[in-house]
Amino acid sequence: MATRFGSLSPSSAVIAHGAEAFHRAVLRNDPRNADALLGLGVLCLGAKRAGEAEALFRALVSVRPGPEASYHLGLALTALERPDAAAAYRQALVFRPGFPEALCNLGACLNAQGRLDEAGRIYCRALVIRPDHAEALSNIGLIRQGQGMLERGVAAFCRALAVQPGNPDILYNLALALGAQRRLDEAAAAARRAVAIRILHADALSALGNLLRELDRLPPSIAAQRNAILVRPDHAEALNSLGNSLHDLGRLDEAVTAYGRAVASRPDFTNAHWNRALSRLLRGDLSRGWDDYEWRLRQEGFQAVGGPFPQPVWRGEDSSRGTLLVHAEQGFGDTIQFIRYVPAAVARGWRVVVEAPRPLLRLLGSLPVPADRVTLVAKGDPLPPFDTHCPMLSLPRAFRTELGTIPAPIPYLGADPERVAAWERRLPPRKADTDPQGGLRVGIVWQGNPQAAVDRGRSVPLADFAPLARVPGVRLVSLQKNHGLEQLDRLPDGMTVTVLGPDFDDGPGAFLDTAAVMMGLDLIVTSDTAVAHLAGALGRPVWLALKAVPDWRWLMTREDCPWYPTMRLFRQTRSGDWRPVFARMAGELFQIMMARAMRKTGILVETGPGELLDKISILEIKLERIHDPVKRRHVETEHGILTRTAERHIPAVAELRELATALKTVNTALWEIEDAIRDCERTQDFGPRFIELARAVYRMNDQRAAIKRRVNERLGSALVEEKSYAAY
Q1: Shared domain check, 428 and 381
Q2: Which of 537, 567, 595 represents a domain boundary (last residue)?
Q3: Predicted TM-score (pTM) above 0.85
């Protein structure tokens, strides 16, 4: 935190103008007047004329060398972003070793050069001289934060604030440090205090917006970023962050505009280009999205598997029948998704070398390509000669991929037949004594890597899969590995999940058992993980649970997936709420099971709507009163079939709802009367109580018949139930 000079107020500017005229008059008569050189130099710095200030301070150094001259020269060089500023501060310290301001600014120079340890020692020297030096405390906080010592950094900022409680820059730095510790509420509070003290603090406003986004408070996050941009319209970081919050809300067109402004402000802003790619791809603008997506290769810390290579990058040019290296990047799921382009490259005449993570090589070896055209190499192993190369996720751009031209020859990966047979013997049966119609084996995956930033909001609590387990005939089979397995120990009541054992995919090859098991499953239901890509690549039926604004490859509104024809997408309608997603899945599964049950019996009988509602009301009473799990499953099956029939054929109007309620009331009374009659039978009590109960049966049945008749008449049914009794 080097010393800064702000803009002058109008009154101060008048005074400064007069002072400047005075100093210039002195220097005309006495060019070596040290006081005039210093005074005019300080005024030039304040007016942001650092070049002129440098010349004046250099003259001062020659006239009156000393700590003040060298220190002020350092200030001018710092303002000019010159690396020799540090030498000027060091010279000031030769004259005055205990000069705390010179020490602080020297520390700032070293910090900017990445020499954190040396900068830290300099700040500590300043604090020995003046323990309450707020700037030194704050700067050492920045050093500790840069060294990863987050707690010590926060402590230093807090000490600095004890000296200067109203310093907005220290509060801003504290907000960043607390945010790095994921103490998001405290960080946001610090940023708010900074903004309250200096309402036009653009960096603090932007930091507040970022923290609010982390807290999933997107509308106020957007407001904070917009305020930062009002203060500084070319604030590239705030524009990029505004785009991020708009993207998270699904406002993709606005996000693309914000990222565009960030790029216009800073053309080499890698993250803004990358983020714009994600928004463009998510909204289906693939051609421009692929162009921006190339900026990922410039991100700090990005490293595709292999590389850099001296050979040129392949950008889709015609093959010279040479050898193309395709090197995998990012996660296992990305490799499984984009390995589909390798057969397309072979079809263009290339011999292809694929460099990929070692655990995936056996799975990738099932690609439908001639063995002499493709060579698989594990990352880190020596590569054979090649003529050109392409990062794997640059292949869509090289092939000019649009939504209608995505290569999807499904399946393009396969499972080992011997493993398939072995796992088929170990999987639970589809048919059991409790499920005479036969059932479905449904594989499930709920948790990605919680340490990965992309997992935010993508994984699903296992308990949210419970509606699937309640569908009659459905058996859930866990395909989960590593993270999230502890959730199997706290399943909701009535939920059962089959676990495949510790040897499941326990070998060095990734997903080999998973692929084999999938071939024996009827459906895979998963969160957004690599398993979804594997199921799609194998051509297995797969349902994917997606958060409200998903990863770019799933697009925004489609229920199908152009990358995987056998995949269905089930999307959140409200961010963070998985319940409607799995309720809908359960409904779809129920329909499948009902269709199977109907095919089994083959009996279709016309009935009156009154009779249908009457039967449904009796089944509802049974669901309330029957607790035996086997009996309940049978009741649930029948209730589901009849309820869906009623939904298709009986309008949902108030009058019919009231008649259905009346039927349930009568049938509830009949249920209780029958219980009471059986109680009389047990006690052999056939006296007045038994007689009254027996009489109540026919009275209630008459009411029931009348209600059913009203339903039939209301709907104009051709089937009208008639009754005839002897007079009484």
Answers
A1: no
A2: 595
A3: no
